[in-house]
Amino acid sequence: MTTLLEIKSSVLRQVQVRPSIRRRTEGEPGHASADPQEPAAGAWKPGDGVEFFAQMRLILKKGEGRQGLPCPEVLLRSGSPAPAEPVDPNRGLRVLTPEEVEMLYEEALYTVLYRAGTMGPDQVDDQETLLGYLQQVFGTNPEEHAEAIERVKKAKAPTYALKVSVMRAKNLLAKDPNGFSDPYCMLGILPASGAPQEPGPHKDQRFSFRKGSKRGGPLPAKCIQVTEVKSSTLNPVWKENFLFEIEDVSTDQLHLDIWDHDDDVTLVEACRKLNEVIGLKGMSRYFKQIVKSARANGTAGPTEDHTDDFLGCLNIPIREVPVAGEDRWFKLEPRSSASRVQGDCQLVLKLITTQRDTGMSQSGRSGFLSYMLLLGHLLQFEHRSQQTNSSGWRGELSGPAATVLCLHGAQSNLSALQLAVLHWQVSSRHHQTCTLDYGYLLGLLEDVQAHWEGASSLPQEQEESLANSFSAFSEFGLRLLRQLRDYFPATNSTAVYRLELLLKCLSKMQLFQPSFEICPFETELNMDIAAALKRGNREWYDRLLNAKSPREQPGPQRLAGLVELADAVYEDLQSCYGIYASLFHNIVEIDFFTLTFRQLERLVAEEAWVLTEELSPKMTLEVASGLFELYLTLADIQRFWSSIPGRDSRSLALAGIHAPFLPAVKLWLQVLRDQARWRLQGAVDVDTLEPVDASSKHSSSAATASLCFSHIQELWARLAWPDPAQAQALGTQLSQDLCEATLFYTELLRKKVDAQPGAAGEAVSEPLCVVLNNVELLRKAAGQALRGLAWPEATSALEGLLPRPLLSCTQALDEDLRQEVHTVTAHLTSKMVADIRKYVQHISLSPDSIQNDEAVAPLVKYLDEKLALLNASLVKENLRRVLEALWELLLQAILQALSANLDVSADFYGRFHFTLEALVNFFHAEGQGLPLENLRDGSYKRLEEELRLHQCSTRECIEQYYLDKLKQKSLEQNRFGRLSVRCHYEAAEQRLVVEVLHAADLPPLDANGLSDPFVIVELGPPHLFPLVRSQRTQVKSRTLHPVYDELFYFSVPAEACRRRSACVLFTVMDHDWLSTNDFAGEAALGLGSVGGIARPQVGGSARARQPVTLHLRRPRAQVKSALRMLEGRTNKEAQEFVKRLKELEKCMEADP
Known about the structure:
The protein is an alpha+beta fold. Strands 4-1-8-7 form a 4-stranded antiparallel β-sheet, with no helix packed on it. A 4-stranded antiparallel β-sheet has the order 3-2-5-6, with helices on one face. A 4-stranded antiparallel β-sheet has the order 13-10-9-16, with no helix packed on it.
């Protein structure tokens, strides 16, 4: 045994780790040779189905992208530049006349030459650079440029003014007992003559309006302004605006004092009268009056200082104010070293001009209009210099351009809102002739919106100008949206992003509508957008229809174009849902997908209805093929709508469109049936019955057949016929055609392999293995395809169950293919029968002198070699079937060897018992081969039983015979009737009492349909009860329900009755007067369970015990096996037992 176990079946242990066969996809190497994409000319005969299935694959490939709802990641395939947008020179900026250009040139030079204030870090401070830039912009030669500069220099200098907005202060000192102050501001312009003197004993003091008359020269009263008093606060908010005229921008200063006051009315009135004082003496008197008023409710003190009321001051040179203005917090400064101040004050400062000696000003053009013309001129010049990527230009101005515009805007006193409006108007107009980046335009609109909310309204003229720019841009945008698919294709991510920004611009403009006194839009903008989209959809569809399927063409010629049209509509709807819909819904609140789907679906449906009505009388194969493909796309459009939650396809114009297509679909499916057969025939003809590659174990024809069936299944899924009754008829016919094609293929394979000559002495045929793998692969592929042909039933069915006709067809085909697999498997293993018998005979003839494992080793080695070949050639499922077939062959071979060697030594049977267990271990292969429950079933049980019985003595065999009778159960409990008995053992008398009560439902064994039954009662086995004779009841004539009520006594010891095989056997016979009695049935009752034997009898009458009902039966194979074993014995006891039983068998009928 040790030697044998060393022969491991490594082959079987590899079975489980090998992956199961899966259907190869079209792109795998194994299918390239089996089903080429483009067959070579002359490789296939006409009508072999290759061209048909190639066209079918194209149809299926078209539907691969139509599964479920589209996602933007799949649709956006290109990041290339967006298509160029249309330009219209008439919609751009107005062309200036030469006189206007000359005046604009002068305006720009005047702005640069008379600039005032401090330049910012991002601005160009060099005057020559700015002048040189203007020379380039206006295209003048050096002489003209120099002359223009001289003219401007001779002009009168502008009048400057300083706009001051006192916004707020924070963290001021508390001067009042309540912990707060009552702050107010006094501010004015200090001319050069009124500036504080640095030398002298007061160099540590700063100027103060209250002491200005003592420290400096005369201060004009018109230069002094005052804010309101804010009571009880340390963080006052004023937001008051003042305008101061500037005499000398290089030397004048802005001075501001913050004071605490206790009497609001008196102080404010006094301060306001300052502007009515003329002359230095009058102002001094008023300052004194202000001081007295300020101290009226306070504590007396020196009138010169008044430091308790001073909160801080500021001195800002005019020349230090930035040219663009500034909004800044200034830290408060002390008046002198003795002053204690804290806090900050926020001021908004802007230096402007109020009078300009230029042609523009003299002609009455406002600064607003001058800035617009200058911005347009500069913008055009800057854009021309950026032609490398003009459509993506974001309006980035050069340093000189930005500086010139900043200077002009500040000098023209343009507000932030006006500047934002001007940049939008000029850029939006310029965009219509030279495309700009929509993100830049959106940013301009956001600037307008930001300043619009916090500023006062524009003058009516400027508001009208803004409204006109909105109208012009919206008209331009609506024109683009009408041609949405041309300028913003859904496959171009750059174009889609431009569309998103355009919609945001239009949406942003709509927000201004409630603010305009003059509305720029006659209707709601989103209504205009929806109308433009509808018009664009119709124009796009009409262009497509005229290009692909003109109505003037005949119907058959229009059909192919209409298929292309429907495909284009489906792809467009995908783009609408996956790309455009979310943009329009989220930005302008338009349901673009529903709008487009309803419109295009109705148009396509109208064309389809008209064309099918025209083509129905002219149905040909070509027309049917085109109509079939057209219907698939129309059905895809319907399913697309239905797949969206909340959408119902019953309201569509395409609802019911399937009806006129039914004849074409039927004809096309008939063609599919014939083409599938031709395709399979051609595939088998060129098949060499060799694996397609190293990783596959099936041949090329199986791959082709599997792929064809897969295509048929996918095609049915796409067809999805909506009418249940029609779908059942179509599906039933298609499933029958598929089953016939499958069986047709297996028949072709069988003929092919039969025609091939087999190699002499070849035990394992590789072509047979390939055929077996082919059939298994096709069984799976056909089963999967059939399950995929389910159709919607009119009546409600359980989820997941196949319709009854399809289920029957699937089961029948699976049974046929399994039978085919069984046939091929038997054919394959039949080549090994002779070798197996030879090795089994070798075991039976081996002398007793050699060890058992040595006798079995040749057989195991042979099996291991053959299984290695089978494992390399078969798939997992087929290898398992071959193993099961080989196992059965081995068992039958051993049974034949046993039947040929009767009454031999016990060692002979022991050797075969060893062989059987060794083979079980070999085929089980430590769990990687056949399961133990499969190995130890069927013929194995019979063989094991015979081996066990052969090793038993004659009496043990006889006892096994009766044990088998006790174990035997009736397969049909009421087939042979029932017998009621009652048994008990009387220990005192040492006898067994058996009472036969009655029988029922006995089989009719006479011609009259009745029987004459009687019962034979005997004990067994005979060697346990050698002195006991059998007894019998009376015969009950003509009845099937006899009643006996007869008692029988058997004098037997209790010890014999307790034996495991001890039983009482009841045999029911039919009495015949002229012939042998007929056997009706038998039943056995084990004596171990009888009262008095299993447990002592305790009081009461034996008749009071419950009767036992026994079901009659006929002897079966497991009972007869012991009998056959005894037949081979030559001893007297065995022969007598067999002789007595055979006499009983003569009157028994064969077991049906």
